[in-house]
Write a structure and sequence with these properties.
This protein has helices spanning 23-29, 41-45, 48-55, 71-84, 95-110, 114-119, 181-200, 206-228, 233-253, 257-269, 273-291, 293-302, 308-321, 328-331, 336-344, 358-365, and strands spanning 12-15, 35-39, 60-62, 88-93, 129-133, 145-150, 155-160, 168-171. The protein is of the alpha/beta class. It binds fe (ii) ion.
Length: 369
């Protein structure tokens, strides 16, 4: 085998039970002093955001944003950050809080408006972000991707730039203990999708393969336990580490066919990101294993499954158990051709081990009727 690759992961990672309490010390070690907290609205209401803000002496809290954060929220947060004269941003929440914080860091660092950044070049000028994920799924704490939306035009884009890497990720599984079962499932299966996509991505390399394999062992081992008993800290720890490693696996490779399809599925049928990924995850596990047979066989065996099809069956079981939709009728899709066109046309499809055409996808989606 011949291979040539580089791997780098610039984020300092602090992982483990209780690490969230070291935030002030971590901020200080980075030479930072005035921070703004970007926190999911329900964390602002239930007191967790206040506890973190007080512990780390943060000077402002911003939580006026929704899932798939809008560029208008970034402008409002940037105004507040400038008014307070902050030198760093702390993100507390799931992917939306972290993606907004990363985008905001470039808006504040560059002085550009959110619209200029969303539709133009992303300059490498940002202020440091410290991310505290409260879900185990997105991997946003270790990727250079920020998914933002311009809801006035119905556009949602995964923006990619080295400027979006956070300075430090503080991954404390205790923060995920209160995540409800369905959210646990959709976030967890999103992480499974990240690891599988890193593995079958055209740009995969031996490091991303190793990270993906380890991530999948932890995620498949922890999924049911975390779903069945949210207070199981050992299961939550496995899911948090699995999601983190899956994020590190796809940070350099990016994602592929499953994520290419997830964007049209979310836009056309309002599916949450993780459920939209799950919708085609078992399907592409089967389809990609016909293309990349040797490697997919090896992966399935190392995870303890007899074949890639058995691995796909396990994903289908996880979806059914946790109440995720798995048919076109359930999501209200009556035009398979339109969905197939949108999925085939998404740029992430080019990263897949095989670029499926709209015709091929239409035939494959027929099996989901
Ligand atoms: Fe994802």
């Amino acid at each position: 085998m011949k291979t040539e690759f580089a791997y780098s992961e610039p984020v300092r990672i602090f992982f483990g039970e209780g690490e969230r309490k070291r935030l002030k010390e971590i901020v200080g070690s980075l030479g930072l002093s005035r921070g703004i907290l970007i926190a999911d609205a329900f964390l602002a209401k239930n007191g967790v955001a206040e506890e973190i803000a007080n512990d780390a002496h943060l000077c402002a809290v911003f939580s006026e944003f929704t899932v798939d954060p809008d560029i208008k929220a970034a402008d409002a947060a940037a105004d507040l950050a400038r008014e307070k004269g902050v030198d760093h941003i702390v993100a507390l929440g799931g992917g939306s809080a972290m993606d907004l914080a990363k985008f905001l860091s470039v808006a504040v660092g560059s002085g550009r408006s959110a619209e200029e950044l969303f539709y133009g070049e992303i300059p490498e000028r940002s202020i440091p972000v410290i991310a505290l994920p409260t879900t185990a799924g997105t991997g946003s704490e270790v990727t250079g991707v920020s998914v933002m939306s311009d809801k006035s035009r119905g556009v949602k884009e995964p923006l990619s730039s080295p400027a979006f890497f956070v300075a430090a990720a503080v991954v404390d599984p205790v923060l995920t203990l209160t995540l409800p079962p369905f959210a646990t499932a959709v976030c967890g299966i999103d992480a499974v999708a990240h690891a599988l996509e890193a593995y079958w991505c055209r740009r995969h390399n031996p490091v991303s393969d190793a990270l993906a394999e380890k991530a999948l062992k932890l995620l498949f081992g922890g999924f049911d336990r975390a779903y069945d008993d949210g207070s199981d800290l050992a299961a939550r720890t496995d899911m948090s580490m699995g999601a983190l490693l899956a994020g590190m696996a796809f940070a350099p490779t990016r994602t592929a066919a499953v994520h290419a399809c997830s964007y049209p599925l979310s836009e056309m049928f309002g599916m949450p990101h993780g459920e939209a990924c799950a919708f085609t995850l078992d399907l592409f596990t089967r389809l990609n294993s016909r293309i990349d047979r040797e490697r997919m066989d090896a992966l399935a065996h190392s995870l303890g499954y007899a074949s890639p099809d058995a691995l796909a069956d396990e994903i289908a079981r996880m979806k059914a158990k946790t109440g995720m939709r798995s048919t076109l009728a359930e999501i209200g899709c009556g035009d398979i051709g339109a969905l197939a066109e949108a999925c085939a046309g998404h740029p992430l499809m080019l990263n897949n081990v095989k670029t499926f055409s709209a015709e091929e996808l239409k035939a494959a989606f027929g099996g989901l009727a």
